[in-house]
Write a structure and sequence with these properties.
Residues 1-20 are annotated as: Disordered. The chain has 4 helices and 3 strands. It has helices at residues 23-32, 35-43, 52-58, 72-82, and strands spanning 49-50, 62-64, 69-70.
Length: 83
């Protein structure tokens, strides 16, 4: 199933807009993100929301809406999955 088939949560009830990133692009973004930022986001429990792409493809995980980086444990899992 393509990411393009789904809209964001904000678009629910309105005209659905596809989430702008494909799964591979999300993974690449996490790969190139500073690990220290990821650690800081994972350690902070406030301002957390759900990443719609990761929820669709890999289950429900948290991300930081400020810097758009997923938790470090997610980055590690993605790194392992992509070799």
């Amino acid at each position: 199933v393509s990411c393009e088939a789904y809209g964001t949560r904000a678009a629910r009830g309105k005209e659905k807009k596809p989430y702008p990133m494909h799964r591979e692009e999300v993974w690449k973004k996490m790969h190139t993100t500073n690990t220290k930022i990821g650690l800081e986001c994972a350690s902070s429990r406030k301002n957390k929301t759900k990443c719609p792409v990761l929820r669709l493809h890999m289950g429900t995980f948290s991300w930081c809406p400020k810097c758009y980086t997923c938790e470090l444990r997610i980055t590690e899992r993605v790194n392992n999955a992509s070799n």
